Amino acid sequence: MSLTRTDVEGIAHLARLEISEAELPVYVASLSKILAFVEQLNAADTAAVEPMAHPLEGEVQRLRPDTVTERDQHEKYQANAAEVAAGLYIVPKVIE
Amino acid sequence: MTLHTRSVAELAAGLAAKDFSAVELAQHYLARIEAGNSALNAFVTITPERALADARRADAARAAGRAGPLTGVPLAHKDIFCTDGIRTTCGSRMLDTFVAPYDATVAERLQAAGTVLLGKTNMDEFAMGSSNETSYYGVVRNPWNPQKVPGGSSGGSAAAVAARLAPIATGTDTGGSIRQPAALVGISGIKPTYGRVSRYGMVAFASSLDQAGILAPSAEDCAILLGAMAGFDPRDSTSVNTPVPDYVAGLRAPLQGVRLGLLKEFLEGGLEAATGALVQAAISRLQSLGATLVDVSCPSLPLSVPAYYVVAPAECSSNLSRFDGIRFGHRCKEPRDLLDLYRRSRGEGFGAEVKRRIMTGTYVLSAGYYDAYYLKAQKVRSLISAEFKQAFTRADVLVGPTAPTPAFDIGAKVDDPITMYLNDIYTIGANLAGLPAMSVPCGFVDGLPVGLQLVGPHFGESRILAAAHAYQSATDFHRRLPPSFT
Amino acid sequence: MSSVAGRGGWEVVIGLETHAQLATKSKIFSGSATAYGAVPNSQANLVDLGYPGVLPVLNGEAVRMAVKFGVATGATVAPRSVFARKNYFYPDLPKGYQISQYERPIVEHGSLEIVLDDGTRKAIGITRAHLEEDAGKSLHDGPTNASGIDLNRAGTPLLEIVSEPDLRSAREAVAYMKKLHTLVRYLEICDGNMQEGSFRCDANVSVRRAGATKLGTRCEIKNVNSFRYVEKAINYEIGRQIAVLERGGSITQQTRLYDAGKDETRPMRSKEEANDYRYFPDPDLLPVALDQAFIDAVRATLPELPDEKAARFAQSYGLQAYDAGVLTSSRELAEYYEAAVRSVGADAAAAKLAANWVMGDWSAFLNRDGLEVGAAKVSAAGLAGLLRRIIDATISGKIAKEVFETMWAEGLEADAVIAAKGLRQITDVAAIEAAIDAVLAANPRQLADYRSGKDKLFGFFVGQAMKATHGKANPAQLNELLKKKLAP
Ligand SMILES: [Mg+2]
Ligand SMILES: [Zn+2]
Question: What are the Cα distances from residue C391, in Å, to C194, C345, C395?
Fold first, then answer.
């Protein structure tokens, strides 16, 4: 699989990553290489195989009781935020 | 006897006998960090105040008769574990100023056990790397040779323990990130079964593969620490609720009659001759100690690296979406609009390898490619897992090399991701299948350590720890210190 | 603009996606409270904020509620369902992905019956219902070029209920939505509060030539938060699509927003680019396994459902299907009605009278004051007390309205109001006759006119006699006696 500049720009946009002009060809090359490398997987016969999303078979989701265990700590949690006003996280205007 | 050559058990005995106090012990290690860290760059953050406060608390607990086996024992955490009030960088500019408002379960449990926190260790950015060259805080150097990498991603923890800047350190292993650096710096490292140790508070790289573990001089040290870290955590849905055995007591299990499985595929895949010879010698040593050897095979194992480089990037691309410059982490200056905020905050905050993996993962999950890449990789993962299961019907412990070569030169592989990824060819299988695995030192090639890998079945930590302990009882590779750090 | 199915040879095809916030105390994956209207971000913990390192743990009550919905709609409850991540960037989505269910939802293949305008019943298929987490809110009301993010809502459990494209008009869509709204409140899995966003609806609308088998290109209208607006938004959209097609144009698949002020839909800018959500199973959560015993135990907790209750009301109380439907449109209303009937004594006339009062004055006052059933100023027992006085002819229906108004305003019992105001009906023949005689004596001209054939003046005499008795004369008696007196 060989990617084009446009492909990589599209992926970078989907991943919300700014990639500079200088970096772009480097990623085109290395991502193409990685995709070619992982295409080895096609060699495996997986016709009758179930995909495995999780390493522990048989384990199932535990259910939590519906109880409120948290108290308001928003000031502490917001100490890591770049911009907060009136308890809200501030971002450039969201357009719907 | 100098303090830093003591094992955890010996430190515990010394503290119990009041040969030295926890404060004295902490001061000793802080002094070693002060003297040695600049050469290694093993620590991102050193926490002397916290260490001394922990140590005073430990001494007080001991005086009050409330000391446990780890009370007063110093350690370092890989900087991927959230620590309340102490910054957690994950080796990334993205989290350069990030201070978690909570403790990871691992950090919480080890603190409750009375350990003394020396600091947070350097690592590949977001644990993505096999050489510790992707850290925003710079490369970590191998204590055996400063021109060489220490391995990664837990390279800082590995170097710190190898140079005895800390007696033990925590690490995480997604594709070999505890075992490979342990091998490259000549120490012991264990990655437990997936679900054995809580992932809560560990910054996620690839959630279905990540597992916390330990880097320490010996298997016995690993056993002591694992007992304190392991166990069910209701905050982690993938944590398994099964009793934690007494790993230290389990060390005494005899090697007699233990069936070692030599995976045919472990002798392929670019294994360097000298490394292979040391691994073969170690296996012979284990046989001489009473183990039997059987040949086993996991034919799909060569596909573990490509499967991993689909699954891990896919999960990471999603896990790292939360770093958007809004609630925490790096935020670009003066964003023009929302899209600019996302793109520049993330573009600036993440390094090249992280961006590469996010893009790989984004691609393999995207419309039209999901089945061909992601689903295919998950199927191959099933195959590998089934083959391991089959192998464990014939063998109790699988043995082989940890890495194909000893430590390589800094800079040698940075421009070639595939070559770099192939460092993990022997370790990734255990992550894909969720198996416990460890590396122990088994010799040197040109003054550089080599690791022997042992892999167990699910929840078979005791088996691999016992085999490793038997080996270390008969050898002294794990006691050797790098000449510059004696 | 009004638009109906089949108009001008076009067939309308509508499917609804409804998001019902489940009425749990805590969030779907964290122990934060779900209460509405809290101080911004005070109910967003580390999990809700998507902090590095934290992990989701599933709320069992959310699962139970989803199963309850499944068994109530005759659906298949999956023995194994899987949570997946839906990846996209948006400031109100803290992790950059929404935990939802994709390939393996918890509920599939249910159905819900609606009643059409002509009284016929129609089954609407429910394709699936899946569990997922709600997002936070972006607030744009500040003066600056910025938005504020409140993540209190993030992680509130949602059941997304997806209908088959079985609906053929905006009216049908609204009937379905109302029915669903009734059901989730009966099941006590959602409070149904549309103003607070507890029950939200997206409509997929397309049109095709009547008889065509292939579906037309659809547009999705997002988050319309009232029944009235759903109907208007869909009708606008139908008209728009037909107009485009009749001009020879084609429909672009789009997400559109309804602007109630302008009564029109317009494309959402944030959804302009094609989405690629990159769904994959969430590795932080394991498959949800439900055994038959669990499902049966949930089934055993089902209340009498709206359709069953309406059928029983029609049967036991002799109500019209329509009235039974109205009275069972909420569990509280049905319970109120039934309590009132039981208290009065359940003969058919009493039941009918109670139905008229509950659907009439009582509902009108409730609406006027914007109250919930539970907060009604006249209790079921209180209303029954009033009805009893109508039935035993202590007061007339007209006086009853006056009594009711006072009961509502002052919180009094009917008998107390009747006594205090002296409204007891006059049934004494002599007293009524005296009043009539006085009226006839005072109005000789009208009497003469009446007798010369102006029949319409009968009403005048009734009015005057009522006035003379301060409205308290028994109307039937008054009529009868007046007729006698006026007879030539
Ligand atoms: Mg939807
Ligand atoms: Zn939804």
Answer: 39, 11, 8
